[in-house]
UniProtKB/TrEMBL annotation, chains A, B:
Lineage of source species: Eukaryota, Metazoa, Ecdysozoa, Arthropoda, Hexapoda
UniProt xrefs under InterPro entries: SLC26A/SulP_dom, SLC26A/SulP_fam, STAS_dom, STAS_dom_sf
Gene: LOC113394168
DNA-binding as UniProt keyword: no
This protein's name: Sodium-independent sulfate anion transporter isoform X1
Membrane-spanning parts: 68-87, 99-120, 155-186, 217-235, 262-286, 336-354, 409-427, 433-451, 463-495
Top-rank taxon: Eukaryota
Boundaries of every SLC26A/SulP transporter domain copy: 70-464
Organism annotation: Vanessa tameamea (Kamehameha butterfly)
Localization annotation: Membrane
Membrane topology: Multi-pass membrane protein
Domain named STAS: residues: 509-600
Record key words, sorted: Membrane, Transmembrane, Transmembrane helix
Length: 631, 631
């Protein structure tokens, strides 16, 4: 009477004759961790694992001239983006400008060997810079140690397979967090745009401070800043124009060249603005001895940015505080506190999101990304850099420039080294307002207001963690904000686990015996079992017909569920009402059978079994009906 | 080709002709909270709600002589258990003996009106006493205020419908907690058994202290204690004997009377031991002026237990500390701390577990239990009692004595009042070791070692939260122990949500086109979506046949899942591999459609649709096979 779902004999029962992957019905269990240590060891040490763990071994043998050209172009273009970006981000992190550059070359070289995603040049990122500022408070030693420990935590997470933790940050929470961070970063740049001093750590405090101090603003800093923003946004727009696309015969060669030039203008806009305003600053200082706008030299401790590549050295395991007391390693760790977990998680979250966006349909090996980023961060910490990772802005440029492999990182790194070696004395003349403009005009596109509409259409409830995380990140300390968002979202899942849905049907067997069929739609785990028992009892006591619980969708159960099923069967037994279980999965059945009394727990799998069970049940004898005439 | 699961026309399609509850196919959604305020208000104020919220209104009209007799017998028998128990439990709570009795009458009267479970006489419990000692530290004012606030929190939880929180304490965690508490309570009585002083708060610390001080033990206290335990256990055993049950004609009248007498002996064993040893203590004091064993009088501040029913008064909102400083209400609340949440939750947990055990198959209204216990606790706090609730020991006696309604609480309460009024001066002569024996011989049966075997057989993984909670409750502060157990168990659910299982089948349409059918077994929520995308991509890229994702079991999805499905469809589109979704539930489909591009997201519901889709797909043209010969 109840047909079991099965596949048509003409397809399912015949094994496919010519398929190499033939496997008629197998279950992919997670991890497959049950096939013993020996197999696990063998799996860990073979060629496939080598390709997986040191990805360069898989792509280097196929490296050719065409790929090399793509990588050279992409590497140099990214270099032109990375240099101004790094100078600006170190400002967000509250560190002297050269520290951004220190984190932009060695990590790239490591990533060539270990990285799995060609479009991710490792380096300073806006979010990591903001978090570094919040955690290390602009103390260079703490920022470097933080980078070292961040790398170790990432590595550890990769080795221990803790990557699944990132899955608990849902899309809405991630969007809310990114948007809030973007607004906070933009806010942090306002002080440089107006040349005022701003106090406070949260978004609100900073804006209050800005409105209080805005009357102290200089004239030329904001003028230069807004002109730069206007220029940057226009160049960005120009870079997106594609000439002749709409004409029937496609773009002509001239149009193609012009499009390419405009794309280059758009891509190098940051470098152009920084170079032009830097020349302007140099000219003012050379001719007037001073500049009407504040320059980068103000950020450097002695007014000069030291030149040269840093000498590799161990990260500092102690430092001298402002009050001349010394902090040892443990003091530093306790001062860094929860940042040691938050920064690795956030960096990985951002990095893996970018990898996914540029995966071209291949799967992303999150574990490998963690290992690569971990080693890159540890390596960078030896170059006195602060934490970084993959940044969306660089990846977009890299991908747009036709990157082929992670080898492009070599050219980016070499450009940064050249900049450090030969150009640092010129960086001092870059106006601070121009760098602020670079950050603001890039970061505003990270505010993901465009996800609200699809979220509203898809699932309105998801707006709660999304908007909640956004608001909380702006008002609370940022790590508390995202943590609350994650917890709220986990509560959704728990509520979901606690409140299964049921379909209830009054049916008749072919013998004409009525019965109630109750179908729960998901697994039975401890938060839901009482609810299930209560609902089944409610449905069952409203009539006295036999009850069948359809267990097709119950793919899993636990001890608490089994206890509840035992109580349920005992209740039905006490009420003299028959209760049967239909189509219980073997794994679930063995759990129930371990606890319930066998004479109360009756399972059937075929429809005609129900007829026989009902016919045999003497409890039904007084009200059993004769078979209907038409049967 | 793939038959959709549906019910046979001879049963499902015909509405049952004579069934009042006829409802051919309805879904019970949780709460049904969507039908407007007006309906909700109407639901709140009608006769059914009155019966639900003031249960006495439903059973009092049907009250008759037979029920009254059952209630009288049960009420008096419970009274004989409650009085010695209350004296002993107040010792666990670190309070003078009369405070246990103060909590054993007014709450019973309130529970008559509001209580939903006839076998639950509210009063002091072992677990609540231990927690009260841990939270209030033996300060009377704090214990009473704790009771008041516990009642308010319970009431609030009832009104706000927070009862579902209790569902997150699974069977294993609850068993581990109860067992650990039983051992801790037994440990707390060792000092009275041996008349030694014991320091330390955790289980381990206390046993270390016991072994250090055991050489100070007096001779007669442990002798009396162990004799009492032996007597109590024997009487318990005797009370369980049923004479003549095995003979063919059933027990004779004489055997029945004898069985009843033995049952009475077993039930009143605590009262018997307390009365006999009390008379012994009185005799010693009367004849020798002192007693070889320590008596209850030592517990009372001035050597005498005050007699009389307490005068109702507001709970104390301030008290004078041992160092003569005064603590006001807020000081007290902050000193009680997390106990204000832990105690209500634990009391409710215990109470509702007992209600379920004696429900006789009816559903338990957890909300009503919360309200009843909340009001009872608030009421008790006006009688200067400390927190209590339902206790398993009393419920077993009550049920065994043939209780019919909650009205039996009246007789229990009256007996306690009589004891307070006329017998308190005699309580002073009860030996402390005898009361310790009463507690130990009862509490040891709360160690649930017998759940380990079924748990092992049902689901070995559930032993982790169970044993973990047990060990942690013994080693950590008790509320941290149970919290860790709950969190570990929640992690199981989250892992479960993050790692769905798949079945993968290579099938052929009737046209002979091969396709891969992937069936995930549960909902798509954010923790699992990346895993799903990775697995589907892995399966799909290993061959290039079209892929069908069977969504029958996907009963729910969220925005993050929709984003992932969009990426998945875009990936397949980029790879030129067809991807179809089969049998997507409408609610899930609308979520996916809100995000995915419609030309990539193809859904079908009927088998022949797949044939048409595959035939129309030009991407398959080069490798489409001719229909096999036998078709």
């Amino acid at each position: 009477m109840i047909p079991r779902r099965k596949h048509n004999a003409s397809s399912g029962s015949l094994p496919p004759p010519d398929d190499k992957h033939a496997s008629n019905d197998y279950i992919l269990s997670d991890g497959g961790a049950r096939d013993g240590w020996r197999a696990a060891l063998r799996r860990r040490f073979n060629r496939k694992t080598l390709h997986k763990r040191i990805p360069i071994t898989s792509w280097l043998p196929q490296y050719n001239a065409e790929k090399a050209i793509g990588d050279v172009i992409a590497g140099i273009t990214v270099g032109l983006t990375v240099i101004p970006q790094s100078l600006a981000y170190s400002n967000i992190a509250g560190l002297p400008p050269q520290y951004g550059l220190y984190g932009s070359f060695f990590g790239c070289f490591i990533y060539i060997l270990l990285g799995g995603c060609r479009a991710v040049p490792a380096g300073p990122t806006a979010i990591a810079s903001l978090l570094t500022w919040q955690v290390a408070g602009g103390v260079i030693e703490k920022a470097i140690l933080l980078n070292f420990l961040t790398g170790l935590v990432e590595l550890l997470m990769g080795v221990l397979g803790l990557g699944f933790l990132i899955n608990f940050v849902s899309g809405p929470v991630s969007s809310g967090f990114t948007s809030a961070v973007a607004l906070m970063i933009a806010t942090s740049q306002v002080k440089d745009m107006f040349a005022i001093s701003v106090t406070g750590t949260t978004f609100l405090q900073q804006w209050i401070s800005i409105f209080r101090n805005i009357h102290n603003a200089s004239l030329w800093d904001p003028v230069l800043g807004f002109v730069c923003i206007a220029l940057l946004l226009s160049m960005r727009k120009i870079g997106m124009i594609k000439l002749g696309e709409k004409s029937a015969e496609g773009p002509s060669t001239r149009q193609k060249v012009l499009t390419k030039c405009m794309w280059l203008l758009g891509t190098c806009r940051n470098a152009i603005v920084v170079v032009v305003t830097g020349v302007l600053g140099f000219w003012f200082v050379a001719t007037h001895g001073t500049s009407p706008v504040r320059l980068m030299a103000d950020n450097a401790p002695d007014g000069a940015i030291p030149s040269g590549v840093p000498i590799p050295q161990l990260p500092p395991f102690g430092y001298v505080r402002a009050d001349n007391s010394t902090a040892d390693f443990l003091d530093m760790v306790s001062e860094l506190g929860s940042g040691l977990l938050v920064i690795p998680l956030i960096v990985l979250l951002e990095d893996i999101a970018i990898c996914k966006a540029f995966s071209d349909g291949r799967t992303i090996d999150a574990t490998q990304e963690m290992i690569a980023l971990g080693v890159a961060n540890v390596g960078n910490s030896f170059m006195q850099a602060y934490p970084g990772g993959g940044s969306l802005a660089r990846s977009v440029v890299s991908n747009g420039s036709g990157v082929k492999t992670t080898f492009s990182g070599l050219y980016t790194g070499v450009m940064v080294i050249l900049a450090l070696q030969f150009f640092t004395q010129y960086f001092e003349f870059i106006p601070k307002a121009a760098l602020a403009a670079v950050i603001i005009s890039a970061i505003l596109f990270m505010v993901e207001y465009d996800v609200i509409k699809p979220m509203w259409r898809a699932k309105k409830l998801d707006l709660i963690p999304g908007v909640g995380t956004f608001v909380l990140c702006l008002t609370l300390p940022i790590e508390l904000g995202i943590l609350t968002g994650v917890v709220v979202n986990i509560i959704f899942i728990l509520y979901h686990a606690a409140r299964p849905k049921f379909s209830v049907e009054m049916l008749k067997t072919e013998q004409g015996v009525e019965y109630l069929m109750i179908t729960p739609d998901r697994c039975l785990m401890f938060p839901s079992v009482d609810y299930v028992r209560r609902l089944v009892t409610k449905c069952a006591t409203s009539s006295s017909v036999p009850v069948v619980i359809e267990c097709t969708h119950i793919y899993s159960a636990d001890y608490t569920a089994a206890k509840s099923i035992e109580q349920l069967t005992a209740d039905f037994h006490a009420r003299q009402q028959p209760l049967y279980f239909y189509n219980v999965k073997p794994s679930v059945c063995s759990i129930f059978e371990a606890v319930a009394k066998p004479e109360h727990f009756v399972v059937f799998y075929e429809d005609d079994e129900l007829d026989r069970l009902l016919a045999a049940d003497e409890r039904l004898a007084p009200r059993k009906q004769p078979p209907p005439l038409q049967a």
